[in-house]
Write a structure and sequence with these properties.
The chain has helices at 2-20, 24-64, 68-94, 106-115, 129-144, 159-164, 199-206; strands spanning 100-103, 118-124, 149-154, 169-170, 172-177, 180-186, 234-235, 240-241, 247-248. The chain is an alpha/beta fold and 251 residues long.
Amino acid sequence: KQWYQRRVRVNYNVKLFIECTPSTSRIMAHQSQQAAQQEMMNRMVAGAVEAMEATVDKELEKYEKMDEDDLEAIRERRLKQMQKLQEKKQEYKNLGHGTYDTITNEKEFFEISKKSDRVVCAFYIDTSFRCKIVDKHMSQLCTKHFETRFIRLNAEKAPFLAERLKIRVMPTILMVKDTNVIDRITGFDDLGNTDNFPTSLLEWRIAQNKVINYSGDLTRPPVDEVKEKKKVVIQRNLRQEEHSSDSELDD
């Protein structure tokens, strides 16, 4: 009886081993499938390379057929484009683009909005620490985005405009396009609600309504989050102070 039981166990183990071991035909079928997939990928890559080579050959052929007059025409068009860009840059410079200026009254705000197609204006009050943080970032963005005018206005010196635009929290950044206010950033809520946000995040937020030319991805901010909400310290005349809350404009 013991001999019979051992024989049954041996037969069961052999059967189990055979069932769990892939057969030669299944191995060959799997290898054949992998080879077919690899072949398909190779053909796709080869097709893409051939298409690219054909495009390059076509462009080279076009340039080879050009004579001196054609090349001169291309150079002239390029020079005209560069000249036009330079003239536009000079026009922006004459309007005050490339600087972050403080304006003193509401009249200046309206005049600038009429002269420049795109304007970013930071409303501030002297007692707000966060307004100074905005100033630091705006001073960097104004030189990078020459196409847009960057200005700042003391809200306490423009009560009519502040009331009309319902500006209550400092800082408030207005985005103006073709004399129309199209967007605003109130406080730091859109900037991670922290003093430690990077300039790139403010740039991305301003660009949402195409007030500046932005080459990045508008659907995703350039930083996922500001992990450490540490406070930025700005040197004042007599002492340093830390403050992290937005300030309200007194009625």
